[in-house]
Amino acid sequence: MSFCRYFMPLAVLAAMACGFSGAQAASAHQPYAGQQQRTIKALSAGDISGYLKGKGMGLAKSAELNHYPGPLHLRQLADEVKLTAEQRAAIATIEAAMKAEARRLGRIILGKEASLDALFADGRADGDEVRELTVAIGRLHGELRAVHLTAHLHVRPLLSRHQIATYDRLRGYASGQTGHSKHGKH
Asked: How many domains would you assign to the chain?
């Protein structure tokens, strides 16, 4: 009996004992299977769409989860939050500027990601060029995150404490404490 014949069934049994099926155990070794067909290997279709459309993609969670509402979700909840016409107009302006800059940066990020992918796909990757591209992508991603966070900063002073508390409750963030008393005009 060969080594593999003896130990392979034991590995499958051990995986099953830990709550994994044989298929799950095999897929653990193939987490990227199928992703080799992507246009930019490191990015999903959803990632690419998010960059092109200027979506938040979770980049403003620091603001969102700390009582700094975002313009998109405020617009979606405008009636429930009881936004005035003036607030709606100001928030729409902030959102439009944010989206425009986010789309611009997103296109640049996608270009850099495509260049990075091409280096590896063509077998031309070298340390200096990979470092240059990854540092540039990281810097651009930081700029993109700042664009989204800054929009939250611009929106918050437009709102009352009650509107922020209502927003937090509607978004599922209410925890009994608002933490707004020491911040800005609320």
From this structure: 2
